[in-house]
Amino acid sequence: WCEDNYLSPFMAVMDNRLSGLLEVLPVSKEDTLYDLGCGDARVLIEFAKKGVKGVGVDLDEVQVTKASQKVEEAQLSHMVSVFQGDFLTIELSEATVIYVFLLPKALELLKHRFIEHMQTGKLKLVVSILYEIPEWPYEVKEFPSISGFFYYKDTLTQ
Fold it and tell me: CA–CA distance from 81 to each of 11, 59, 72, 96, 150 (Å)?
């Protein structure tokens, strides 16, 4: 769905990055965390254990099946929903926080949607792992053993 290039090949977030994310991501039980390209849903599951509702979308039917099974095994179906779809076109109006571990081309394609939802919707924070969203100011969160958390808030310049 992006000619010869992937926008989001499956690569699970490493445990140390996930631990760091759990420590610093400012989410609460009032938030709804969207994971675009959710893979096996490990991020959503860990945040659901902390009381945060989650929505995951992935284009790969096999990943969605695995993710749904993991959510069910963790007994978190009431907190996390996962579905197959294209993250470039899904509805984001309920998202308050979006987590992405996507390639730069995908981030570039999504940027305008993130900005729109920050300006008109509930979205307050986008967190990208490893890659920056082009031409959008960010904060970097660093830890001794991990790096590469890029935080995008509603202080936007287009």
Answer: 20, 14, 10, 15, 25
How many CA atoms lie less than 13 Å away from 129 in the CB half-sphere?
24
- 33 sits in which H/E element: strand 32-36
Q: Which two tokens stand for residue 154?
A: 């509603």
pTM: 0.84
- Give CA torsion, residues 78, 84, 88, 89, to 10 deg: -80
How confident is the model over 69-83, as pLDDT tens digits?
A: 999 999 999 999 999
Starting from the edge strand earliest in sequence, which strands make up the sheet with 32-36, in order?
80-84, 53-58, 32-36, 97-100, 125-129, 149-152, 139-141
